[in-house]
Design goal:
heterodimer; A: Fumarate Reductase Iron-sulfur Protein, Chain B, domain 2; 5-stranded mixed β-sheet; 9 strands; globular; B: mainly alpha; 3 helical TM bundles of succinate and fumarate reductases; about 0% strand; elongated
Chain lengths: ~280, ~120
């Protein structure tokens, strides 16, 4: 159904649940006045403002950046703010919380299991030269080609759509899921990082990439175009190569020290002092 | 400890070995006109004379044992993964793991004994 053929009123079917009141899940139906350019998130706001102020969901930036408004829209995990109603092409829009997570209320999933796995895989730069990290004397050199190896994985906004789509996450709570594994691979691939062995302590065991069946749903649903399926396969290849001592170890990025004896050109203001 | 990484690596290696040995098996059984070297009596690959000739070969006895080990490890590790995905609690996971190891070892010992006995008997024929 194209935008021109959409009716003036769209029906939102929304899964409602308030666990603290020990309610059973139910479906609420709400009429929304459609306007061209409207997103699913806009529809939810309209319901909250005009029909039912108790409806709960999580959202922030409205522009596909913060990753807060992941929802199960018409049978697929998507960002509410990034999904045009016209794109769905249906007069009835079904909205439910992301699967594979406990539900806090209505459309608000509890993402703690995902972030627990994420934290366990140390998703940050790990280096031996802690002093340099704390009080940098220069910048870590990285070529454009080296950055290209992990760039797409760094676009992840942790919206949890990939975890909601993952068939392994649906049954195995010990599996870290596509988001956490992709971020581990993103840092393992970063030439400024030297934490492969540290992350390997987790990755090489039960909570590693071994349960992935490569269904590829994570890559299909990612709203930012990240390919977690690829990251997991690349990570497995790296770990298997490591078993045979064949892993290609890239030297850790060196520091490009600040050049000496360079005068600032007149009229160019100095950089502000660091705030941290 | 990097247990699952090693197990997965051996899982892949066993898969490759199975592919190789299964290829050999298929070639001997179905390409006997081309790979006649393994069928010294001529005729069909499953003629008794040909089967007996292969059983007398140390090479085949070794490949049988290798195939048995690779297939058992590959299959039982895959089964373990399927069972673990059903979400059993941690103690049950450990018990399942040990049960599969015992089943695998038992079948391997029995199969190896059968291959060795067959090799010994055909030598004495």
């Amino acid at each position: 159904m194209s935008e021109n053929k959409l009716p003036e009123t769209i029906i939102f079917r929304i899964r409602r649940l308030a666990p603290r009141r020990a309610e059973k899940p139910s479906w609420g139906e709400y009429s929304v006045t459609y306007e061209p350019g409207m997103t699913v998130l806009d529809g939810l706001w309209q319901i909250k403002e005009r029909v039912d102020s108790t409806l709960a969901w999580r959202a922030s930036c409205r522009m596909g950046v913060c990753g807060s408004c992941g929802m199960f829209i018409n049978g697929r995990p998507r960002l509410g703010c990034n999904t045009q109603i016209s794109e769905l092409g249906t007069a009835v829009v079904t909205v439910a919380p992301l699967p594979n997570f406990p539900i806090i209320r209505d459309l608000v999933p509890d993402l703690r299991p995902m972030f627990d796995h994420h934290t366990a895989l140390s998703p940050y730069i790990i280096r031996d030269d802690v002093d340099e990290m704390e009080r940098p004397t220069g910048e870590f050199y990285q070529s454009a080609a080296e950055m290209e190896r992990y760039l797409q994985f760094s676009y992840c906004i942790k919206c949890a759509c990939c975890v909601a789509a993952c068939p392994t996450c649906a049954t195995d709570s010990e599996y870290p899921g596509p988001m956490a594994l992709t971020q581990a691979h993103r840092y393992n691939t970063d030439t400024r990082d030297d934490g492969f062995e540290h992350r390997q302590e987790v990755l090489a065991n039960e909570a590693g990439p071994w349960r992935c069946h490569f269904a590829g749903e994570c890559s299909r649903v990612c709203p930012k175009g990240v390919d977690p399926g690829k990251a997991i396969q690349l990570m497995r290849r790296e770990l298997v190569a490591d078993s045979f001592g064949l892993r290609h170890k890239t030297p850790v990025a060196e520091i490009n020290v600040k050049p000496d004896g360079i005068e600032r050109r007149p009229g160019i203001p100095a950089a502000p002092e660091p705030t941290l | 400890m990097i247990r699952d990484q090693k197990l997965w690596t051996w899982h892949l290696a066993a898969g490759m070995l199975i592919l190789l040995l299964l290829g050999l098996h298929m070639a001997i059984m179905h390409l006997d006109s081309l790979v006649g070297i393994f069928n010294p009596a001529g005729g069909h690959a499953i003629d008794w004379e040909n089967v007996a000739a292969r059983s007398q070969s140390l090479f085949f006895m070794v490949t049988y044992v290798l195939m048995l080990g690779a297939a058992l490890f590959h299959g039982l590790y895959g089964l373990r993964n399927i069972l673990f995905e059903l979400g059993p609690p941690s103690p049950l996971r450990q018990s399942l793991g040990w049960a599969l190891i015992l089943v695998g070892l038992g079948l391997f010992v029995f199969g190896t004994w059968a291959a060795w006995a067959s090799y010994q008997n055909t030598l004495s024929v």
